[in-house]
Every structure is written in structure tokens, then in C-alpha cells.
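Batch 3, record 17
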Amino acid sequence: DAMVIQNPRYQVTQFGKPVTLSCSQTLNHNVMYWYQQKSSQAPKLLFHYYDKDFNNEADTPDNFQSRRPNTSFCFLDIRSPGLGDAAMYLCATRTGHLGVGQYFGPGTRLTVT
Amino acid sequence: AQSVTQLGSHVSVSEGALVLLRCNYSSSVPPYLFWYVQYPNQGLQLLLKYTTGATLVKGINGFEAEFKKSETSFHLTKPSAHMSDAAEYFCAVGGTGGTSYGKLTFGQGTILTVHP
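Prediction for the assembled complex:
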């Protein structure tokens, strides 16, 4: 009965080689978020979708892109990963009601070699 | 603008002792407040939340937190620590207006260690 699913859980990519991380949800939530979390730090919001409406954080590098083809799926594309992009990437969802909070997936740990 | 400060990046307690993790927030509008727990190599799990109403909120795993507006605090407590409580805990404020709408601002996290 997993609600927010992230695949793969662990991803290794080479410096400069494009990589895509996947998130899916069974909750039918309107909003989906992508966070980057580096070791011993708080999650940092990269962008989010409200339905098909894309919202980029001002300090998210252009190297990071996202797609949401339908309600259930959202993808994070890193066009040219650098060593500094090694991190845990967390997907989260929420309904239209702010007070419910966000539901997080288990994360994908990205290693860049 | 909103912000969260968690006092103490590391807290260590004995099994069976009281757990107290401190969180202070800043928000220009009435806040929604959350505590999340994160186990190693896992995502964040919601422990409890405050939106409106009763200021003492109870969550999962025996945790509770009290919203104190006058102190701008939302400290997390548990009467008796268990070994399984060892994890990292994040306090977050949820934006309810302006450019922060729908976003979570996290504190830096507190790593809880429980020793026998």
C-alpha cells in the first residue's frame, strides 16, 4: 500500500551523464514536490507542480528540470550531473488542503562518479 | 517570510528518559507547524501537525508537541524514549500565504541518539 514511490532507490551516474529520477503516487494528490537533501542538511525545495502548473524555486539550477505527464507521475531530470549534485532526492505530495502536510517518498540516493 | 530554528543539532538521552526537541519558528501569518522524522536512507514521515484548535497535539509513536504562540515555539516531547526513536527529527513551518504558500520551511534537524 505504498503511497509515494520513488525509483530507483539508489542511482549511480557518471559526471555529465544525464539521469532521470522517477516518482509516482497513488494518492491522487494535486501537488507534487521535488527536494534535494545533502548529508546532514534539511531538505531543499527544487520545484513543485500544482496539477500541471510548474513552479520553480528561484535558486534551482537550470541543470535541474522536471516533467509531470499526468497526476500520478513526476520526473526529475538532471541534464549534466556534477559531483555537487550527489544527494538524496525526495519526492513529496499533498492535497489541496495545506493543513494535511506533505507525504514523502523513500527517496533516491544519487551518487555521481 | 518564515523560518525555523531547532535548538541543538544532537540530543542524546537514555532509554526510558524524557525526550525534548526544541523548535522555534518565525512567521508573519498564523503558521501551520509540523514535525517529521527521518530514519537513515529513508524519506520523511509525518509525526504530528498543528493547524488550528487545540494547542497540544498528539502524534504517532507516543510523541506530542505544544504550540505556544507567545513563545513562537513548537517543542516535541515524548515521556519515555525507546531505542527505535533514534533518528533525525525536522521541525517545519508550512506557508499559508504569499510566495510561501504550500511550501515547507524546515529547520536544520536534530539527531536523536538513545542509549541503553
